From TrEMBL:
Pfam families: PALP, THR4_C, Thr_synth_N
Keywords: Amino-acid biosynthesis, Lyase, Pyridoxal phosphate, Threonine biosynthesis
EC number: 4.2.3.1
Name of the molecule in the record: Threonine synthase
Family matches, as InterPro entries: Ser/Thr_deHydtase_PyrdxlP-BS (IPR000634), Thr_synth_N (IPR029144), Thr_synth_N_sf (IPR037158), Thr_synthase-like (IPR004450), Threonine_Synthase (IPR051166), TrpB-like_PALP (IPR001926), TrpB-like_PALP_sf (IPR036052)
Species per Swiss-Prot/TrEMBL record: Treponema rectale
Amino acid sequence: MIYTDTRDKSVKVNFQTAVMNGMNASTGGLYIPVEFPKLESSFINRIPEPSFREVAFNMAKPYVEGEIPDADLESLIIDAYPFTSQVVPVDPVTYVLELFHGPTCAFKDFGARFMARVMSYFNRNENDNLHILVATSGDTGSAVGSAFHNVPGIDVTILYPDGKISPLQEKQLSTFTGNVRALKVKGTFDDCQKLVKTAFTDTELRNKFRLSSANSINISRLLPQSFYYMYSSLVVKNRIPQDSKIENPSIICIVPSGNFGNLTSGLIAREMGAPIAGFVAATNSNHTVPDWIATGNYEARPSVSTLSNAMDVGAPSNYERISAMYSLEQVRSLFASYWTDDEGTLDAIRSCHSNTGYIIDPHGAVGWKAWNDIRGGKMAELINGTLKTDINEPGLTANVPEWGKAAADKKAVGIILETAAPAKFGATVVKAIGREPSMPERLEKVMSLPDNAIPMEKDYESFKEYLMSSL
Ligand SMILES: *Cc1c(COP(=O)(O)O)cnc(C)c1O
């Protein structure tokens, strides 16, 4: 596969270059494949549907062709995914896609574990280790740390702001041993990010060590997230005849979004033939993208903090990919877009629980709220002109997507992406429903491990000295 650049279509690189560079430093653009090959219809229409790993293999294959042989790709996928995504029906037209069955209980495990194994594969003939530096304000660090833990040929240094992340998040970051270490920096997330950025431009350091980053713009984190869209849409398609008996239903994926990497992966799956009619882009009070869809003006802004904090992004990095792949008109016909505030999020946790018995986390709750409104009559009101929309008020934006009529006529089913285990946000869940979600064993276990984080000043010289003496 050839990869090009969102800012310069004359760029042509292979998968290894796109992965190892992360982004194109000379243009500031992001890598995207030049095409999204469709899967065979015999594969997509197979009954029963293929397994998650079969889907993963068949979807990954064209993107690594000529660079990772089939047998290696197959073992890479088996190693990356000892867990899977789970489709849970909660009412006849609503499915929750649980993406939290990986080691850190959040969907980022799907992308990070694939990326880690791909990087290790490309590093296999090098004598020196590859050093990954990552700054985190919470969940990315644990997914990346866990994904690279014990992966051969790679060391990871995670920087996080001391005292500014939750106790559970801190445990998930700081208790690694071996090739993954955490530095608790006396400063903010921005200080952490600055240390990492400075290190990447430090020639002395770069001459001594092979450095790389692992952030969410890497194409090898995005591609694997498309696997669970394909897999779940096939599972749901095959279940609909029993569950809701709707003929030719439109399958809609509702995606709680921050940086919009997850939603971009959904677009890739749809391009590759997944039976997905469209998407709901659901955000919290950081509604940069809904506003863009409503007004046509993209205005990045500082983030505000909310109960769904992994979505607190004011300048979503994958806006650049979405707008390179589609025109605004295409986006408006593919997506409904919706945002809600903290009050709406608590309300959604409550209504999801009382209507279905399902306990949803604050991120998934943003998606539930959007879907519940859309199928509960808001899309019908939008179509017949009785819904007032205002970009400064929570709710739908004014565009009616191509699948809007199907949703208004109750001929649509929703797949809500549940991006984290509710136990990671126990206090918010208790506030909403007065009840503690059950704690997965792997989260309980991490709470009792010793903290190995190394204290670090926020000045670059101390950080550099540490790297020079300990890598
Ligand atoms: C990162 C994250 C999101 C947002 O995903 P994007 O790809 O950045 O849109 C949503 N929920 C949880 C729990 C996350 O960790």
